[in-house]
Amino acid sequence: MSPAAQNGANRANVRNSDPTPPRSRDALRAAQMYYLQDLTMNAIARELRTSRSTVSRLLSMARETGLVQIQINNPLDRAPALEREIRNNFGVDAHVVPVTDLVSDSDVLDRVAIQAARTLGPLVDSNAIIGVAWGSTISAVSHHLTRKVTHDSTIVQLNGAGNTQTTGITYASEILRRFGAAYGARVEQFPVPAFFDHAETKTAMWAERSVKRILDLQERMTMAIFGVGSTGSGIPSHVYAGGYLDEEDLAILRRNQVVGDVATVFFRADGSHSDIVLNERSTGPDLGMLQQVRRRICVVSGESKINGLRGALAAGLATDLILDERSARTLVHNS
Amino acid sequence: MSPAAQNGANRANVRNSDPTPPRSRDALRAAQMYYLQDLTMNAIARELRTSRSTVSRLLSMARETGLVQIQINNPLDRAPALEREIRNNFGVDAHVVPVTDLVSDSDVLDRVAIQAARTLGPLVDSNAIIGVAWGSTISAVSHHLTRKVTHDSTIVQLNGAGNTQTTGITYASEILRRFGAAYGARVEQFPVPAFFDHAETKTAMWAERSVKRILDLQERMTMAIFGVGSTGSGIPSHVYAGGYLDEEDLAILRRNQVVGDVATVFFRADGSHSDIVLNERSTGPDLGMLQQVRRRICVVSGESKINGLRGALAAGLATDLILDERSARTLVHNS
DNA sequence: AATCACTTTGCACAAACGTGCACATGCCCC
DNA sequence: GGGGCATGTGCACGTTTGTGCAAAGTGATT
């Protein structure tokens, strides 16, 4: 976000008395003329007595600030086969991001992230309490959020992010900050490590009022947004490589046939999770509690995550699933 | 609408079994990639293995068929002053179409019509019964409707359109047809003249079952769309010039201080209408009944209609008002 | 198989658009 | 009052997009 934009947002937050900042008034007019009346930017420039380039900039501002919302709605009766199949087989609303074989894995992540961010926008409401996990997928999403004005919304961190190494994850807080900025929401960080060394420490901490406040927010979540980690083939995801777990922990995971995690809470292929001891030291949300949340959005990019995803779906963790087409195919056809 | 598009629509109506026509499947993919992933048309063409120009055409198809919906939402707290004032003074939701002094009157009509058509789209739902008036304003609107898939919707004509002269108004049915095509709705015409010569004929006709069917539909309307006629300064609108009324009728209107009409039902500046005898010969809907409709959308373009509009607002005929900025200013400032 | 009517495609060109850059304007702090 | 900084503007250029046109499908009919 440019410093200019930030400044604008701040000014708006300070409930000052000037009725409408002239800049965004013009942006609104321009947007109406461009998107609703089909004028060219040149024509708009003449009417606003400014240059075409300024109009171009007004319009991109209008898009970025969520003044203009572009939605794609495919009437359910003609929803693409893949999305229908996923809904039928797994009971979640699927949003498949079109992608062909020409596209590299990192491009896929980018595209899924952009589309996820755009899909999220319309679902966010005022008075929402939005739980957000951290990880490479959600980080990518956070870079592409479009702004939307809401009142009294809160972003709450789903699981701690501290670890023993220096593997600088300042970015958990960065991710949260971006969500907060996009939706004009309060941000509540969760200042604990991802895993405690001792389950007793967790018990103790969970009794602290400062922590209870966060846990209470989590219980009242109206929406949760998370990726999945997967122990499957290929690159292990952040949690498995970033110094959060030691050799012994990883051995435990293998012995327990863990296939993946959501917000550092682990589960098996069949979705079971209650008897995995590592979860007692994890700061992620109890999955039973997570299942109570009205809207639970899972973002997945890349086939390496399929195993983890299968487990997450078996556990019923998501109500909505945003994933790339390649993964979607694999998910449906090899099941 | 092009013959091609029509053909497509017909094929869709015939509930055939092929799951998804390949053309619109591509359109959906293209739209997602363009609007949700910010790819260029060139990139999309490569992925779809076609030419860029085809992608351009797919995208315009996606827009026209309502696959892509572009909305402009100005958060209420920063709604432009004009719209707020109108809401406060007249109790209707105003949608002001930005227009500057550089623009000619006929251009204004066009722009209001386009924006009205776009604004309408999101409000139309399945199972709707939509009453539609006829007149130059609504005719203009009907040319710009974007398609939207709905089920079991009905378009019903609000008032008769026949007259004694040859002033070829085939266009009442044309207007209706376009609404029907845009929303995939049944069309119910109202095959009566605009005015009967004798009130008794109306009474007789209103007892006919064929007419009753239409009246019944009108009573169950969920939405009504109409312009206003105005006797005020400048050009008299269609009804006053088109051979619907003779000299004597016009004299009656003047004597009764009629300021305008909605769907050929007349009212005075204060909104009163029940004792205007001409209304007993009009085929337009009883205004009391109209007021029961949940959503009543009034489209107005041009300052010459202000007098009529004032009366219509006083009568509480509209819940939503779409009008050009110049008229909006006049409406607010000279009241 | 040939014809016809009609749709769809790619090309080529013109129009419309985004953006780096240099300059203007306003504001704060010294 | 002037220098420094932040913000906004218009120009110029390269890129991206819309569209008329001719050619290539497509499918029904003879």
How does this model look, in words?
- Chains A, B: Residues 1-18 have a biased composition (Polar residues).
- Chains A, B: Residues 81-332 form the Sugar-binding domain.
- Chains A, B: Pfam families: Sugar-bind.
- The structure is a homodimer of 335-residue chains.
- Chain A has helices at residues 3-13, 22-36, 41-48, 52-64, 81-90, 105-120, 136-142, 171-183, 199-206, 209-219, 238-241, 247-255, 287-290, 306-314, 325-333; strands spanning 68-72, 93-97, 129-132, 154-157, 186-188, 223-226, 229-230, 258-262, 265-268, 295-300, 320-324.
- The first copy, chain A, is α/β, with parallel strands linked by helices and 335 residues long.
- Chain A folds into two domains: 3-64, Orthogonal Bundle (Arc Repressor Mutant, subunit A), CATH 1.10.10.60; 79-333, Rossmann fold.
- In chain A, the strands form two sheets. A seven-stranded parallel beta sheet of chain A has the order 2-11-10-6-3-4-5, with helices on both faces. In chain A, strands 7-8-9 form a three-stranded antiparallel beta sheet.
- At the A-B interface, α2, α3, β1 and α6 of A face α2, β1 and α6 of B.
- Chain B binds a DNA duplex (30 and 30 nucleotides) through α1 and α4.
Total of helices of chain A = 15
Distance between termini of chain A?
42 Å
Mean pLDDT of chain A: 81
Low-confidence stretches of chain A: 1-19
- What is the number of E strands of chain A? 11
Q: Give me the secondary-structure category of chain A.
A: alpha/beta
CATH architecture of the largest domain in chain A: 3-Layer(aba) Sandwich
Largest sheet, spatial ordering of strands of chain A: 2-11-10-6-3-4-5
The structural domain count of chain A equals 2
Measured by residues with Cβ under 8 Å of the partner chain's Cβ, the largest interface is: A-B, 43 and 42 residues
**CATH uppermost class of the largest domain in chain A:** Alpha Beta
Helix content of chain A: 40-55%
> What fold name stands as the CATH topology of the largest domain in chain A?
Rossmann fold
Shape of chain A: globular
